[in-house]
Design goal:
This protein is an alpha+beta fold. The protein has helices at 5-11, 27-30, and strands spanning 47-51, 71-75. It has two helices and two strands, in the order ααββ.
C-alpha cells in the first residue's frame, strides 16, 4: 500500500513529484523508466488519468476492458490496481 504519491512514484521507478501532495505529468515522460507490470497494490490517494491516445492494459478493481480512444480514469483511495 502506498500512503504517499512520492512512495508510489519510487515504486514504479519514475521521478518524484514536484509537489508532495499533487502531481501532473505526461505518461510518455515516464515511459523510459516506468515498471511495465506490477503485482496488485493499493494507494491512499485519489488519482485521475486522461488517456488521449495510445494503448495498453489497466486493471482497476474488477475492470480490465476500457474503451479505445480517449478515456478518463478515476481511482479513489484503497482500490486494488495493477
Amino acid at each position: 500500500m502506498f500512503k504517499r504519491i512520492v512512495d508510489y512514484c519510487e515504486a514504479i521507478n519514475i521521478s518524484p513529484p514536484k509537489h508532495p501532495h499533487f502531481d501532473i505529468r505526461k505518461f510518455e515522460d515516464n515511459m523510459p523508466t516506468v515498471i511495465g507490470e506490477m503485482k496488485p497494490f493499493r494507494h491512499e490517494f485519489y488519482a485521475i488519468a486522461i488517456k488521449a491516445e495510445g494503448d495498453g492494459i489497466v486493471v482497476s478493481g474488477h475492470h480490465a476492458q476500457f474503451p479505445q480512444g480517449a478515456t478518463v480514469f478515476f481511482n479513489s483511495p484503497f482500490q486494488i490496481l495493477s
